[in-house]
Amino acid sequence: MKKVIAIVVTYKRKELLEKVLTRLSEQSFKLSKVLVVDNNSQDGTEELVKSFYLNNNIFEYHNTGANLGGAGGFNYGFQLANNYEYDYLWLMDDDFLPATNCLEELISVRSNGIIQPIRFNLDGLCAEITPVVYDLSKVLCTNPKSHTVADIYDDITESEIEIAAVPFEGPLISKDVVKKIGFPESKFFIFNDDLDYSIRARKAGFKITCSMKATAERLLLNNQNNDLKSWKGYFMLRNHFYILRTHGENVFVKNRSLVIALFYMLKSLLSLDSKTMRVVIEAYKDSFKLSNNDNHKPN
Fold it and tell me: What are the φ/ψ torsions at residue 261 (nearest 5 degrees)?
């Protein structure tokens, strides 16, 4: 029997978290451990998780002591899991609701790489926006993600398809991957830590697939707007710059971040938008070392 440890990162969503933990306790393939990593919610999350001990001692609560973001939370969870024996890590946040047979279907693929379930919105529409192709070699390209699983969902006939990357919303990651490439990079804070991990895994020779039989629901709609004035906009831009520079497959892609930064700076200058100008400059400057998280994360 394969040993699977679930890592659930949460922050101030105890009502949703309760649904997720309940569903994990109902999985047809039984989990060895559920590590709940709380980014210091202080909203009753600790009491909620500890109440699950009464009926099921596989649940563990761990408070990071600060808001480390999703990236820091998953890095923390990997470190915790390193204290146990396991064959797979199952990653998710607090709005990912797997079907009761989701883990069973993921395990049945028997992968030594990474397997992603297919996610749906509560209205039944496919929400799997993971990239089938993420091209970091194409020079004239505004977005390396050319199309997603959702884009081709109606035409898929296979039980699994190969994909370029996963979100940290449901992937089953083999211990072989962890041993070879290590933990997610905590300095991303949010956005692209999962993309970076996926690219590293593929570079190491591991296959990433999406299972059409392993399903899950997203309890919240995906809302990643590109408002550079918001705190999220800074991280989206900074982390994208880092991905291009670190994983770009030629000098043009590696330096595309400078072109993007200059475009946004010129646009901000023409519109007299000093706030966006400042965000772009700081995002570009900080992207070299993924620095200054504390200056931009929410209070």
Answer: -60, -45
Contacts for 203 with CB less than 8 Å, ≥ 6 apart: none
Residue 41 DSSP label: -
Length of the chain equals 299
- Give the separation between CA 118 and CA 116, rounded to whole angstroms: 7
Q: Are 212 and 120 in contact (CB under 8 A)?
A: no
Residue 216 has pLDDT above 60, yes or no: yes
213 burial level (CB within 10 Å; 0-12, 13-18, 19+): middle
Say how many C-beta atoms besides its own lie within 10 A of residue 156's C-beta. Answer: 15
What is the C-alpha separation between 165 and 135, in angstroms, rounded? 11
Tell me what pLDDT residue 17 has.
97
- pTM score: 0.95
Bridge partner list, 215: 118
**In terms of pLDDT, which residue wins out, 160 or 143?**
160
Backbone angles phi, psi at 110, to 5 degrees: 55, 50
224 pLDDT above the threshold of 70:
no
Side chain identity at residue 12, one-letter code: K
d(CA 236, CA 241): 9
Q: How far is CA 98 from CA 15, 103, 171, 219, 293, in A?
A: 16, 8, 11, 10, 31
Report d(CA 31, CA 150) in Å as an integer: 29
Predicted confidence band at 225 (pLDDT cuts at 50, 70, 90)? low
Q: How far apart are CA 41 and CA 15, in angstroms?
A: 12
Report the alpha-carbon distance of residue 72 to residue 39 in Å, rounded.
Answer: 9
Whole-angstrom distance, CA of residue 15 vs CA of residue 216:
18
Question: Which strand (E) or helix (H) includes residue 147?
Answer: strand 145-148
- Residues 165 and 208: beta-carbon distance below 8 Å: yes
198: nearest Cα among 165, 157, 238, 246: 165
